Amino acid sequence: MTAYLPTIKQLQYLVALRQHGHFGKAADACFVTQSTLSAGLRELETLLGVTLVERTRRVVRFTPLGQKVTDKAIRVIRETEELADIARIEGQPLHGELRMGVIPTIAPFLLPAMLPRLRSQWPKLKLYLREETSQAACDALHRGHLDCVLLAMPFGCGEVDKAMLFDDQLYVAYPRGEAPVGASVRADAIDEERMLLLEDGHCLKDHVLAACNRPELRAEATMMGTSLHTLVQMVDNGLGVTFLPAMAIDAGILEGTDVDTRALQSAHGFRRIALVWRRSSPREEEFQLLAEALRLIAASIAPRLASIDGPAPMEPIILRVAD
């Protein structure tokens, strides 16, 4: 057996430096002084007998071997945290810290109602939230920075397990007086020259284009918006039409506007909201409990959301572009 092995603390220093690219910022993230972090990394390099990081006054550059060692360190730290989780959650579901990622087209519409109810149901749960695009959230999940992610499917998130929560119907939003007669509108009846979409990086944009069966419209949208609230204001000012999920409408995104909506008539005119977690996580039972709670909360606050009983598979093709 090797007499001397890297410590978890040394590996944490290495991962923090990779993440922040700066000794001072990495030290702050680890709650140590810069000299302590630097000394820990030098000890690690001495122990391994290799150079992991090239140090200059302006640039921190990892060597090729340093990149490989850091990739492995990320996995080791993640598995160490999971080892601690096994002991911590025994007999105490949803107790202690839980780091959840939520995408921007869900967070502002579901979280305000979700958080108070979760605190009431599990008062000892410390839920830390991180709003990120789908790809960034999935990357953080696999790096061990998040425990689970509230995600809109379909989306390729790697080796994960998931609990499907509910279907979120898509609606077309029109300026007052422009909406067609009837409760719904066919995708081919929408004027693509007036479409307002979210900018690249939001998976809702890709769900909309897939539902319309018009992927070529990605580059033809009249205007790109940074958020659903921005798009609603553009529609309200007569600049075009956009697409909104039911949860946003039920959360009041149209209050104070003259925007009208019609359900999108399409075989895949919805997105499926799911809770996803790493396939290796020992906290699956906790996540299933959390998923059931989220289903009940959603049913009580958003009547347009269609409940799902169990992890039914999605039919649409998995999208592998950034959220």
TrEMBL record:
Pfam families referenced in this protein's UniProt entry, alphabetically: HTH_1 (PF00126), LysR_substrate (PF03466)
Where the record annotates domain HTH lysR-type, the positions are 6-63
Membrane-spanning segments: none
Q: Which UniProt keywords apply?
A: DNA-binding, Transcription, Transcription regulation
Q: Which family does it belong to?
A: Belongs to the LysR transcriptional regulatory family.
Which protein is depicted? Answer: Hydrogen peroxide-inducible genes activator
Which species does this protein come from?
A: Sphingomonas brevis
